[in-house]
């Protein structure tokens, strides 16, 4: 079994550093501890993430466990390993955030210890043991307490980004252990297990885990091969590492050919994404070496898209920087192999999330894996400086103090939801989402005037933001302000802008305010032209689920206006657009609660036909028995009228 943590020896500072790693882990725990009682946020609440723990009345047995894993749609693989890890903290929902965040922190600490072990074993291929230990500690420290990863550790669902790193580092340890045993067969067994099993587990945690064979191959060719006499068999390298690399590249190339369809739901094309990601990756690099106090976190939806090499001009500059790094990394691979290893590892680890797949543009957690080896060259340089003159020891100490201070400042904002959301709203004025969540934080504290003022501030930056205008009209209705100008803006946006499907809840709230007569000088019937405009929006041609929802809304409002026949027509139309028995049963309930039992029975009959055809069914629910029960109740109510 590979040795995970090699005992430390007296270092270049002249004093024993045997307890530095445990002290570092305790320091990291201290920095994060105040935020562990902080809130769940955003995608934590996505139906297929943490709330899925409460589906089927909790995870109680094998049957409910299989259903829980079957509904996972976080990525192409379903990420079952990450989903299973949430069961360490709860088997039902809602749940307390502390156990989830504590597990994330412990996982981060484990990753830091594993990273130290991997770096030390790599460095000992060239450096003497004591120096390798110090460099490994410095680089692992830099990564472990880096403020960029605060949002990764404290955002519970990003355990999906952390687990691939755990398995990747374990894979590296097994690979390096096996390499020391070559040419014995057991050496190849260890290396194959490290590459194969770890890649499988990492990929089933998140898809970028599939890059482990590429990262091992880069490390082998740049660092291991020039420094060891015994080399792995080339056929083994081609089969165990080369073939998975070809598979990943083939998958990414297929994404290029399907880009026209894939990118239809994004406000950018494949070409624009690649150009923008060049700037973003350069910004990642800059922020990793020069972290900032403000403007970080989860909200980067306002990041400007590159529409050409000179739009903005920094696009071309970013491409030149990346080309220079890659070319210099290749040319200096023998003279400065640590530099080459850091460069190629960083860019290779970004291949899945920062190239052709139609993900959103900017997230800090995407650097959790790529930054593993990034600080090695700088750490080695600092150690060399300290050997020349001990006064240079102030440099790593200053860096440690700086990283500690910024990380502590960031973790403080995660202690409670209002502080977190308001901080992000103030620090990210270009982010529409940050402004919306800031408004929500103020709204939950009943600070409505301040919430409206924040909305107006956001609209100065984004006058055509549909979300902000929706929130603004709702607030103008609640605060008894004239909302006619806002209504005109909304009608223009509905006609000319592509609707963002994250805006459903806000649009529904605005419609209800208008329908219920809360908006001054706007007749309740205005909702119907708005729904017509929304349904004619070009984005709806690509989203049948959205068209179904609009038909449902229209039916709901018609029913409230005393037009049950037209309401039934809309409910039936919604099921023809996209069958959904759960939504259909709610429509039956709405008709029945308005005492239109005959129409509820008509709709139920259609739903029964859909059930028999297996359409619109959610796995694990017994629709047949429920429909029989509802039908009996409706017939009984109808006979008593």
Residue-averaged pLDDT: 87
Structural class: mainly alpha
Q: Span between N and C termini?
A: 78 Å
Series of secondary-structure elements, N-terminal to C-terminal: HHHHHHHHHHHHHHHHHHHHHHHHHHHH
As residue ranges, the low-confidence spans are: 1-16
Strand content: under 5%
Q: Characterize the main sheet.
A: none
Give a verbal description of the structure:
It is built from 28 helices and no strands. It has 641 residues and is an all-alpha fold. It has a domain at 20-410. Helix 19 (448-461) packs antiparallel against helix 20 and helix 25 runs parallel beside helix 27 (597-612).
Annotation keywords:
641 residues, mainly alpha, 28 helices, globular, disordered N terminus
Quick recap:
With 641 residues, the chain is mainly α. It contains 28 helices and no strands.
Topology at a glance:
Layout: H1 20-32, H2 62-70, H3 80-85, H4 97-123, H5 129-144, H6 150-154, H7 159-180, H8 185-203, H9 212-224, H10 234-257, H11 259-262, H12 270-289, H13 314-331, H14 337-349, H15 376-388, H16 394-413, H17 417-427, H18 432-444, H19 448-461, H20 466-478, H21 484-496, H22 504-515, H23 527-535, H24 544-560, H25 564-577, H26 581-593, H27 597-612, H28 623-639
Helix pairs in contact: 1-4, 4-5, 4-7, 5-15, 7-8, 9-10, 9-14, 12-13, 13-14, 17-18, 18-19, 19-20, 20-21, 20-22, 23-24, 24-25, 25-26, 25-27, 26-27, 27-28
């Amino acid at each position: 079994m590979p040795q995970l943590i090699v005992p430390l020896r007296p270092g270049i500072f002249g004093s024993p550093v045997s307890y530095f790693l445990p002290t570092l882990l305790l320091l990291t725990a201290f920095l994060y501890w105040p935020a562990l009682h902080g809130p769940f946020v955003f995608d934590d609440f996505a139906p297929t993430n943490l709330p899925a723990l409460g589906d089927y009345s909790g995870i109680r047995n094998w049957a409910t466990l299989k259903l829980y894993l079957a509904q996972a749609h976080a990525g192409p693989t379903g990420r079952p390993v990450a989903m299973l890890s949430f069961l360490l903290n709860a088997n039902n929902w809602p749940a307390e955030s502390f156990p989830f965040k504590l597990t994330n922190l412990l996982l981060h600490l484990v990753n830091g210890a594993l990273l130290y072990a991997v770096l030390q074993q790599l460095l000992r291929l060239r450096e003497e043991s004591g120096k390798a230990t110090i460099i490994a500690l410095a680089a692992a420290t830099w990564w472990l307490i880096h403020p960029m990863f605060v949002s990764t550790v404290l955002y519970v669902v990003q355990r999906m980004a952390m687990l691939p790193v755990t398995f990747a580092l374990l894979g590296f340890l097994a690979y390096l252990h096996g390499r020391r045993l070559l040419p014995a067969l057991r050496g190849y067994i260890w290396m194959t297990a490290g590459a194969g099993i770890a890649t499988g587990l990492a990929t089933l945690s998140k898809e970028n885990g599939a890059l482990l064979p590429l990262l091992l191959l880069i490390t082998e060719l740049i660092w291991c091969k020039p420094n060891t006499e015994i080399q792995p068999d080339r056929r083994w390298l081609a089969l165990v590492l080369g073939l998975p690399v070809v598979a990943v590249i083939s998958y990414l190339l297929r994404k290029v050919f399907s880009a026209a369809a894939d990118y239809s739901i994004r406000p950018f094309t494949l070409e624009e994404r690649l150009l923008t990601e060049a700037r973003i990756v350069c910004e990642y690099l800059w922020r990793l070496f020069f972290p900032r106090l403000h403007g970080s976190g989860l909200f980067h939806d306002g990041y400007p898209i590159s529409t050409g090499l000179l739009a903005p001009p920094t696009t071309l500059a970013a491409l030149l920087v990346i080309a220079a790094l890659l070319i210099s990394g290749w040319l200096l691979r023998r003279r400065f192999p640590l530099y080459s290893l850091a460069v190629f590892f960083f860019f290779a680890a970004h291949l899945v999330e920062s190239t052709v797949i139609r993900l959103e543009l900017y997230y800090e957690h995407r650097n959790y894996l790529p930054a593993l080896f990034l600080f090695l060259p700088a750490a080695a340089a600092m150690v060399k400086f300290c050997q020349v003159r001990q006064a240079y020891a102030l440099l790593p100490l200053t860096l440690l103090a700086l990283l500690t201070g910024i990380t502590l400042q960031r973790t403080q904002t995660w202690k409670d939801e209002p502080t977190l959301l308001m901080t992000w709203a103030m620090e990210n004025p270009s982010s529409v989402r940050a402004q919306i969540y800031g408004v929500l934080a103020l709204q939950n504290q009943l600070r409505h005037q301040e919430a409206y003022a924040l909305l107006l501030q956001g609209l100065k930056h984004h006058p055509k933001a549909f979300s902000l205008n929706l929130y603004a009209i709702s607030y103008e209705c609640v605060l008894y302000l004239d909302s006619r100008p806002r209504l005109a803006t909304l009608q223009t946006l509905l006609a000319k802008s592509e609707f963002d499907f994250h805006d459903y809840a806000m649009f529904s709230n605005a419609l209800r305010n208008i329908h219920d007569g809360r908006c001054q000088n706007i007749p309740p019937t205005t909702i119907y032209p708005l729904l017509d405009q929304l349904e004619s929006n070009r984005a709806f041609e690509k989203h049948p689920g959205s068209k179904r929802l609009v038909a449902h809304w229209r039916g709901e409002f018609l029913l409230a206006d005393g037009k049950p026949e037209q309401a039934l027509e809309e409910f039936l139309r919604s099921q023809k657009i996209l069958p959904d028995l759960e939504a259909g049963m709610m429509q039956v309930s709405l008709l029945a609660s308005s005492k239109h039992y005959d129409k509820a029975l008509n709709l139920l009959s259609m739903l029964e036909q859909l059930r028999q055809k297996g359409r619109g069914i959610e796995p694990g629910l017994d629709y047949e028995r429920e429909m029989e029960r509802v039908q009996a109740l409706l017939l009984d109510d109808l006979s008593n009228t």
